[in-house]
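task queued by scheduler; priority normal; single chain, no ligands, no partner chains; default sampling; output format set to structure tokens
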Amino acid sequence: MKPLLVVCLIALSSPFGYGAGLPRSIPEAQGVSSADVLAFVEAVDKNVDSLHSFMLLRHGHVVAEGWWTPYGAEAPHSLYSLSKSFTSTAVGLSVAEGKLSLDDEVLKFFPDEAPPEPSHNLRSMRVSDLLRMSTGQQTEPPRTPDEPWVKTFLAHPVPFKPGTHFQYNTSATYMLSAIVQEATGQTVLDYLRPRLFEPLGIEHPTWETSPQGITAGGFGLSIRTEDIARFGQLYLQKGKWQGKQLVTEAWVEAATARQTSNGSDPNSDWDQGYGYQFWRCRHGAYRGDGAFGQFCIVLSEEDAVIAITSGVGDMQSVLSLVWDKLLPAFKSTPQAPDDEVVQKLQRKLKSLAMRPQEGSHRPTKVSGRKYGFPPNARKLEAITLESRGEEGPVTLVIRQDGTEQRIVCGRGTWEKGRATWGPLTQQPIAASGAWTGDDTFTARICFSETPFVVTVGLQFSGDELRCRAQANVGFGPTRQPELVGKAE
């Protein structure tokens, strides 16, 4: 196949049907090795469980992109702390508009929420200290539904002089969001719509709020993978987009520079310094990142951006693969493409999928039998398996807290559905299931706009059912206590 024809086919295969997408190109046309990109993707598939999406930009062109089924191009993904970099941008825009200053004292914005006798260190805390995660607090203030989050933050001890002690602090980012709202009269989400989201073509962003109606700031933003890439490209271009300066170049430079030291390990991407809600990286790069592997990596020296969403426990392993496999891919000039390798990369990117649940055992004859559970903390009331023959999918019927959920588990595939119970109600899900033992059915349930995959093991023994559940990642214990049900 001729190189020009390959370029045309790839450009036509862009999966996006909304807005003006970023331009597409074969890697070699932008000085990137398809073989090295392929090596990265293959290494991810072998060593990481699991990436959900990957997009590589060079010279403003998308040269590689892929989504691991059941994740998809048009679906948003929870960003967790990658949201912080967007809140930082809102602060930068507010400063440029004269709404606030980095030198403003935090208490200036919340006179009614301050403790009766603020400490000297609290009175000294400034907006810049929040941005740099150098509030002077030794621990992160809690965020509970029982008390306003601003008030809780201001009541928290400040044992160190602000600006002298790095402490990663999501509540500090929330305070930045609250300050922007006080200064502009709009939530960060509403403030950013016309100034950032709409100019970048980011459609339908959603962002969680506090009980007080303030954008969460430090977490809670959900957007698509290409939206992450556009944000990174904006910063790579020093705040300019399609000829218009959306964010000042001075803010981009300051926000992504090393504003505070946070460690000395040369092999850790969490010890390279911290900016204004951006992390410095090895190899001269910087990034926004969120829990479980949500990344917006900007490599200024290579004129490249990498957007990744995932559900991993070891985030450093992902970044290490980026440095080991992708850094060598960047060349200073366009390269002659090897059409066979280019096509092999494209086939690989289009066939990406999370591993469905595998099994080889024959099903136990329990189809249609209902198992009830005694009262428990998870409010699980009953489970029934419904089978469509030995080769067909199995439907897992769960009754929890008075609501019935029917989850069709694909056999060797992912079946899409929607959650109707629990904290992720109305979230899209996909499920895969198989008999993994003579008496055990195992289902993997993927909440496909989040990092979370829950594996449910059901072990049948006579009239008894033992139910075990474990999530792939979590902020606390990922394994739930075993529950024992009885046939009804």
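post-processing summary
- Residues 370-487 form a domain with the Lipocalin fold (CATH 2.40.128.20).
- The longest strand covers residues 428-437.
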